[in-house]
Amino acid sequence: MQRFENRVVLITGAGSGIGRATAKRMAVEGARLMLVDRNEEGLKQTAEEIAAGAEVLTRIVDVSDEAAVEQCVSETIAHFGQLDVLCNNAGIAGGDYNTVQEQSLETWQKIVSVNLYGVMLFTKYASRQMEKQGKGAIVNTASVAGIRSGAGGNAYSASKAAVINFTMTSACDLGGHNVRVNAVCPGLVETGMTQPVFDYARANNKEAKLGARCELRRYGRPEEIASAIAFLASDDASYMTGQALAVDGGNTASLNLPGMKV
Ligand SMILES: NC(=O)c1ccc[n+]([C@@H]2O[C@H](COP(=O)([O-])OP(=O)(O)OC[C@H]3O[C@@H](n4cnc5c(N)ncnc54)[C@H](O)[C@@H]3O)[C@@H](O)[C@H]2O)c1
């Protein structure tokens, strides 16, 4: 499949995990790529892992820095002459599991500035170009944590719920310009963000428990999220906008009561 031939795709958080898998998938399908991250080493590695022959540019950007985001989008357009797909994927867990009574505003500000403001800022600047082109697709990486509680601290969960709602409001803002906006909501996936959880489970002989309460009885792989992102970004999803697609092994489909599974 060459669904992204002659398309320019900008991916944030491309230096690791789901973003890296998405970059590799898009490259295989013909995309010309602008890969963005604040981690230079990670970006380098992603670029190296991408299939030979793909056109790849990388930029070190903090997605919460408006001036840097605006410049990155300008450079993308200056280099490629177009911008067709934006994957707002950068995100941090970085929070704690404090109850609201113990929670600090600082924790919320740190997480929201990356997970929410970063999505808003790239959408703001990228969609101006998409409007000019009369077409575009934006895919935001939210989380099951934005649908239910229990998959992250309160700051992380609220930031991801906000991304889901922002997906809807920006789909309404941009639909008249033929720009589609959708979100994926991954369940547990082994990436840089979740590595401590996986390391702990393996060190304590608890790996079988990871993802065991999902209906598919396992955790996910970055490539499985990347294929859903690629679907939403492609013309295969041409009549979808404003949707949040859970890619979570059935986790959010279930009440997930302890003791109800074998
Ligand atoms: N791994 C999971 O289980 C899981 C589940 C649900 C949602 N997600 C979401 O998936 C997305 C990708 O995360 P991942 O799991 O691949 O984790 P990851 O840590 O492997 O990748 C995240 C990338 O984002 C980059 N990043 C973080 N803050 C940034 C900033 N301010 N500016 C630019 N880049 C920044 C990091 O450097 C990193 O390369 C995130 O939005 C995350 O919340 C992950």
Structural features:
262 residues, alpha/beta, Rossmann fold, seven-stranded parallel β-sheet, 7 helices, 7 strands, 15% strand, globular, binds nicotinamide-adenine-dinucleotide, oxidoreductase
Task: Summarize the structure in short.
With about 260 residues, the chain is an alpha/beta fold. The chain has helices at about 15-30, 40-50, 65-80, 105-135, 155-175, 195-205, 220-235; strands at about 10, 30-35, 55-60, 85-90, 135-140, 180-185, 245. The chain has a single domain (about 10-190, about 220-255), classed as NAD(P)-binding Rossmann-like Domain (Rossmann fold, 3-Layer(aba) Sandwich).
- Rounded Rg: 18 Å
Number of helices: 7
CATH topology: Rossmann fold
Oligomeric status? single chain
Shape: globular
Unreliable stretches (pLDDT < 50, length at least 5) are none
Provide the domain count.
1
Number of strands: 7
In percent, how helical is the residue content?
A: 40-55%
Specify the CATH homologous superfamily.
Answer: NAD(P)-binding Rossmann-like Domain
- Cofactors and ligands: nicotinamide-adenine-dinucleotide
